[in-house]
Design brief:
Layout: H1 5-18, H2 25-62
């Protein structure tokens, strides 16, 4: 950005936007990653619960005889 003070200030501002600043891209991406990990855990719990309920339903149905065959 050159040797002028305004250029150095601008370069510092851009640098902080990338990493280390209050609202840097790095912090935003890490925050998004955390949210995605939470979503993954939640959806995995939903799938696990779905298969558990499905297995329970299959067991209940297997204990009943179907008449008319």
């Amino acid at each position: 950005m050159g040797t002028l003070q305004s250029g150095m200030d601008l370069a510092r501002k851009f640098s902080l936007k990338a990493s280390g600043g209050e609202d840097s891209l790095e912090k935003s991406l890490l925050s998004h990653i955390d949210v995605l990990k939470e979503m993954e855990a939640y959806f995995q719990a939903c799938v696990t619960r779905y298969f558990a309920v499905e297995a329970e339903n299959m067991d209940r149905l297997a204990r009943h005889e179907v008449s008319g065959s």
